[in-house]
Amino acid sequence: MSRNNISIAIHGGAGTILRNEMTPELQQQYEQGLHNALDKGYSILSVGGSSLDAVEAAVASLEDFPLFNAGRGAVFNNKGGHEMDAAIMYGKTLEAGGVCGVSNIRNPVRLARAVMEQSGHVLLSGAGAEEFARSQHLQFEDDAYFYSQQRYQQWQDALKADVVQLDHTVKKFGTVGAVALDYEGNLSAATSTGGLTNKKFGRIGDSPIPGAGTYANNNTCAISCTGVGELFIRSVVAYDISCLIEYKGLSLKDACDLVVNDKLVKIGGEGGLIAIDKDGNIEMPFNSEGMYRACHNNLGRNEILIYR
Fold this sequence. Notes:
The protein is an alpha+beta fold and 308 residues long. The protein is built from 8 helices and 12 strands. Helix 1 packs antiparallel against helix 2, helix 2 packs antiparallel against helix 3 and helix 7 (237-248) crosses helix 8.
């Protein structure tokens, strides 16, 4: 039996810290966080593991890394708490699971997978999602686990200015994600985020919404997005790329370029995404200053990048 190519790509958010504010030490930390997550995901694929396990492991690693706006590194909302969103999708069956507005969950991506596999639903929110997490014996952490001085200061600055901010004051769209293709030819995608600093009214972005920020379909591609969530929802970005491949016959590269560098730009949608198609081709386009990103396949491509 011939085996497919295997590929994985991950991201830690688009927008990124401006080059003149990025110290070598900080850059090394970000790259190490990406390397750890990429390694966790690829090591699963390389021994014949599923793309679903690979994206979950990669995103959980990014959630545990405090510099990325997801899980432990989640930003503060207007009330000084953390509200996290996540989703996972399996391209073989089109099954998906998502959670939004959850607090104190160590790894929201693991909860999203439990929603997909155990709940009979696709998207759970807030207190109900947390109740479900307890029923699944998932790991909770107290507020101190999610505290960082940097995040707290960002929130205080945003409070003083009365603005809702993207992750860094220098416009980083804080989201993490992973897409993968396994030896069986199955595609998967997962995305997780802490949302916007100082966000109000239970705001939800594109990350937990299948078709908007996260999508996987074995016939086409797997996508995980990062950017201005409202515009990614309105543009149904992840599904749009899949449709351009399925119905118009575009290549993954052409579909990504059209959506990220044309359609999104026209409505002011800044950000980027990672994508893998059914043949294992990898694209990581963005229209912002940069995007924390990395990829690895079995054809010799293995890279970790921040800027263009």
